[in-house]
Amino acid sequence: MSRSERLFDLLDLLRRHRHPVSGKVLAQEIGVSIRTLYRDIASLQAQGAHIEGEPGVGYVLKPGFLLPPLMFTLEEIEALALGSRWVAERADGRLGTAARSALARIAAVLPADLREELETSALLIGPGPMIPGDAVDPALLRKAIRTERKLRLAYSDASATLSQRVVWPFALAFFDQVRVLIGWCELRGDFRSFRTDRIHDAELLDARYPRRRQALLKAWRHAQCRVHDAAGN
């Protein structure tokens, strides 16, 4: 294993732990001596990784730092290029612009050889069906999800029946032909999915919903598993 690969593995290992991990445990998982581990941690810190801790206490990686160029493998470069191209083609305008901007920022800090790999990636997004336009700016829906605030929706179902809903939005799903807002519906007292092209109006309410977004997402996934299990039986 090269030193660059070892540093990458160490950073990836630290990323998976939210609490301080002892140097001994890290060294064992990476397969190096404790002395080499200390040198690798110092090297990562010098490159901008926010690793806090000290020998005998443990180490933890703090979020929010710029990834050093060596932290991307060729496969990750291809994944970034492909994912950004998909978002640029199939997501809404703001996300598409953000994807292109993020890719340009990443390219700016990559070494020349990796930057060429990113810019000349041969993984392409094929044409897909047109996605129906949205009457409501998807940025408003994403803001509601991020801030865990309720939304008041004017929504029409498949039969074009219009209803007023107050929902707790916690996810936005992107399909080839539609985008779907997923949330807890106060009117139905259950999880519901709302096609964004059928949302006629949306108002971001001041009230935060009473459960955390991740808890709602977890409960929704469990509910989906039960439905699939029942269908399989």
TrEMBL record:
A Pfam family annotated for this UniProt entry: WYL
Q: Where is the WYL domain?
A: 140-203
Query: What's the superkingdom here?
Result: Bacteria
Listed SUPFAM superfamilies: Winged helix' DNA-binding domain
Task: Provide the Helix-turn-helix type domain boundaries.
Answer: 6-59
- InterPro entries with a match to the protein in the record: CBASS_pafABC_assoc_protein (IPR051534), HTH_11 (IPR013196), WH-like_DNA-bd_sf (IPR036388), WH_DNA-bd_sf (IPR036390), WYL_dom (IPR026881)
Signal peptide start and end residues? none
The name this protein carries in UniProt is YafY family protein
